[in-house]
Amino acid sequence: MIMNGTVQFGDEGFMGTQRFQEIKAAAYEHLLSRIEELGAEFGRWTRAAIEEFVGIEVASFARLNRMAINEAEMQQIASALTKELAGLGPLEDLLEDPAVEDVLINGYDNVFVSRRGVLARESLRFSDNQHVLRIVRRILAPLGRRLDESTPMVDARLPDGGRLNVVIEPLAVDGPMVSIRKFRQDPLKPSDLLALGTFNEEISRLLQAAVECRCNILISGGTSSGKTSLLNALAFFIPEAERVVTIEDTAELSLNHPHVVRLESRQGGYDGAGHVSIRELIRNSLRMRPDRVVVGEVRGAEVMDMLQAMNTGHEGSMATIHANSPRECLYRIEMLAGFAGYQGSEDSLRRQIASALDFVVQIGRLSNGSRRVLSITEVTGVGDGVISTQELYRHESWVDPDGNDGDRWVGLGVHPHTPKLARSKAQLRPNAPSEAEQGGGFWGRRRQ
């Protein structure tokens, strides 16, 4: 059945069978021979023309070979082959699905997809590993990236802002390993995160005040915990009159701000020539008159340049880092500074970290796939050779009498120590929750 130009099927079981793959492969070879006859003319066809051509040729191929397939199955094969010739094959529907966050291919017959934070195996599959490589190389071709035995590992940014990572033989033992991270075209706003239960109203007010008052913020969390989404949301609070420079390994940020300068590192060529690191970009960004510097992810020697930027007049800067807790986050910064060749004493480094950072926002992904701000910790200084912190809010899970899971954020009832938020003291005054309030309102909410 065809509705509005799109083929609709009630039963997609045929597409998951070996018979479908065999018929599709044979029809694909037939199409390639017909395309060779057409020559350069085929390259000028529109997608609609290719779709019509494939439909006619598949019907003719099935009739000549007396294949026992019905009209719906023939349409499924034609649709899949159109995607092969004019699109991205089996990946096309997944990349167009707004609910899909990650596509993970572990060899041609082992595909996993993450939707709303939950990873599950997908029924689609490729015909073989060469089929996977053909689609991946089609993605990489417009990007000018090379994937072969001499460069078996590629990290690239897709035209829609997503990220592609591919590892092939001899590094990948069981076939091509492809990881595609998708990003929303419309970044989540703070109100969206509030509605999703990522944080409550009181935390939202604190984060807004921290950004507007130019506090330096580090967002810490694990893989796929929502760090980039939270960083994008915080950018909504940056005053429009300020100039923001973003620096990333692979450009993922999409800040909703009128004055953003986006910089992206560059991998070196086959001989390593032309490599431009995050560290070099941060150094150069300080010559570009930024009001704030936003680093997509701190993972190496650039940590020292980020701290220098935060300590030299670029207040209100932000970054993300991989760590499991605020304390682990501070330890990781010290470790990265050591790898960067920091020559000073440990006490001097800790004082520099404490003077640079105002808040560490820890975010995580729960077992049901939902993302939550797990804690907000303020860096208050250095005492007895240790970086001093105070936790302002902590996330807790709870279960109501009906057995429903819920969330709440427990506050210590203290105002942030930093003088940057002195003017916001009345706005941010915490209200300790009563026992009745802990199951509802903005302190507690049921988890959907």
Description:
The structure is a single chain. The chain has 448 residues and is α/β, with parallel strands linked by helices. Helix content is 32%, strand content 23%. The longest helix has 21 residues. The radius of gyration is 26 Å and the shape is elongated. The two termini are 36 Å apart.
What are the salient characteristics of this protein?
disordered N terminus, alpha/beta, elongated, 23% strand, Rossmann fold, six-stranded antiparallel beta sheet, 448 residues, 32% helix, ten-stranded mixed beta sheet, Beta-Lactamase
Could you write a compact summary of the structure shown?
The chain is α/β, with parallel strands linked by helices and 448 residues long.
